[in-house]
Amino acid sequence: MYSSTEIKQDSANITKSVCKIILSCSKSGLDTSLNQSGIHVSEDIVEKVLEKFENAGMLAHRFFEWAGKQRNYNHTVRAYHIMIESLAKIRQYEIVWDLVNCMNGKGMLNIETFCIIMRKYARAQKVDEAVYTFNIMKKYNVPPNLAAFNGLLSALCKSKNAPNLPKAREIFREMVDANCPPDIVTYGIMVDILCKAGRTDEAVQVVKEMEFDGCQPTSFIYSILLHTYGIENRIEDAINTFLQMEKDGVKPDVAVYNALITVFCKANKFQNAYRVVAEMDNKGVTPNSRTCNIIMNGLMHRGESDEAIKVFCKLSKICEPDADTYTMMIKLFCEREEFEMALKVWRYMKNKQFAPGMHTFSVLVNGFIKKHDLSSASVLMEEMIERGLRPGRHTFGKLRQLLLKEGRNDVLEFLHEKMNLLVKDPLYD
């Protein structure tokens, strides 16, 4: 018999092997390489691999398609959800809805499926499509409930620009009319929407009304208020809110501490931010990658790159860096024109089985363009396209100008041919 530890180790090794194959194979040879590897996938392995490649949607989808054809394996709801989220990031909505229809045929659809799609549409400023997704749920025999209403409100809240407050109020009223009384989650989302819409004082009033009605605000709601006070440079209000939260018996979690750290970083009070990290340790709250990213980002904005590197080295021993952390480090070294160090971080990131996303590729490509290293920039651009990532117009436009200047029309034509297989939209104006 195998112990649970041995099974976990075996699963981790297989996941690592699959990731290496995906990273090293061309688009056309992936299925063959995976078949020849003799690897047998499980639900756990497929989910972990998809998570690793969440920023490389088309690459993840090719593996997803291959895994779905394997004997004695069926995709889980979670695998579908990871895949839908990954594809929606790169706006492959047609494939997203194909997956929804596939899940529907298998009786696997649930509220969360539609909530994911609503969030992604809202992030892409497609509010009408988010509302359409909510309205079409009934046709898929998934009747909207409180979680669905909260999902739509949350989607509106996650819009990159200021959220549509009138639309949010309309949905809130519709929710009450449909006999779905708002819960603590609803109130939290509405506080978030009001804060993002610049109605901070109104949001505070909502929190006071909650307390008056005997509904204790959560740490999430406090983290929203702290974050907003940081943006508005209301440091004293932020500190008072944090102290009031502790007084009310609400235990701060990592999100609350991160919000407080953001307040101090925006005010350039980094010693205070470090004290918060120390307090987290004393209270048994472990920092996460977001903690590291907030402090590093603040230091980089002040041009204190040496201090940012020290923070990375210290905090990466406590918490696992994420793709954003590595991207910031690569950008930092490119700006310092320390390209060997940038490549070292790039390789380390890949060794940790993180699939670089569009932003990470763009940072390094722009670094090589700045260095006038046409060969490295072109190779990276090709790899980016091979992974199903659409380059940003600005980055591709700069590389195009440099290629034309150097008379490398052949390379430009080659990259265009690659792109034509991926997208129809022009890459430059």
From TrEMBL:
Keyword 4Fe-4S: no
PPR repeats: 110-144, 145-182, 183-217, 218-252, 253-287, 322-356, 357-391
UniProt cross-references to SUPFAM superfamilies, sorted A to Z: TPR-like
Membrane spanning residue stretches: none
PROSITE patterns referenced in this protein's UniProt entry, alphabetically: PPR
UniProt keyword Nucleotide-binding, yes or no: no
Keywords: Repeat
PANTHER family, alphabetized: OS01G0228400 PROTEIN (PTHR47931)
Protein name (database record): Pentatricopeptide repeat-containing protein mitochondrial
